[in-house]
Each structure stands twice: as structure tokens, then as C-alpha cells.
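Posting for a labmate who doesn't have an account.
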Amino acid sequence: MINLLRILAAVVLALTTSVGAEAQDSEHVLMDMQVWVTPPQGSGYCAQLEAGTFTAELQAVGQGSNGRGQPWPVEFSFYGYRGFDDPATIDTTVSSLAPTSVSAPLQGGGLYCFSLTNLVQVSANAPNAVTTQYWQGMNVRMTIQR
């Protein structure tokens, strides 16, 4: 009977450790969608995030009817609000159809922001009929691994 109790205790301890490890190593999807970015202004958003490893997977959508044409360049920026967690800053430009993946460790417990900016040069006061000729689609998936 004592051996059975020891075995049960060991199984409970193993399950508890396993469940704790799964919770620590879980992936939290922040965003997984296709967005369209027009020049000349980008758009940005902020969210309160926990500690972990932030990963952004980015892929441009090709231009033209076959979807294989050269994409317009788009800049992706990720940063802690007002300089919070400076080592987490990411700045990268996507200008090909190849997938791009970037990661950074997050201190967590603060506000983090990201932006996507279409880098095509158009006049700041260009009408929508002009700026929408340069829309660039981006597949964006952002996660935190805990």
C-alpha cells in the first residue's frame, strides 16, 4: 500500500510538473490576418503584453492578377511604448514575397506597439484614387511564446 501511495504521489507530481511546463511553453496568438497598407501613412496599435518571446511572421502578397508581382516595400516596427523595454524593439522592411520572421524577448507587464508603413513615395496630400493604387497586402501573424 505504501508503494502504491508513492507511485500515485510520483504520478501526481509528474502531471503537475507537466501541466506547469505546458502553461509556460504555450503560444498565445495576438494577431493572424491579412492587412492592406496604403501610403503615405502607416497605422499602429498598442496592447498590454505579458513576458515571453514575441514573434512576428510577415509575408507580402504579390501584385498583379497572378499574385506573383513584386510587392511594394512595407516597414514593420514593434516597440515598447515610450521607450519601455528597449531591447524588444524590432524594425524590419518586407520587400519580397519570401516569408520573414523576427523575434524578441519581452520583459512584459507594459504597453507594446506595432506599426505597418507602406514605403511607396506619394504626395502627403494625394487623393485616395492615387494612394489606393499602391495598396500592399501583408499576411501578419504575431505570437507570444511563454
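Reply:
Got it, the C-alpha cells are right above this. The longest strand covers residues 27-37.
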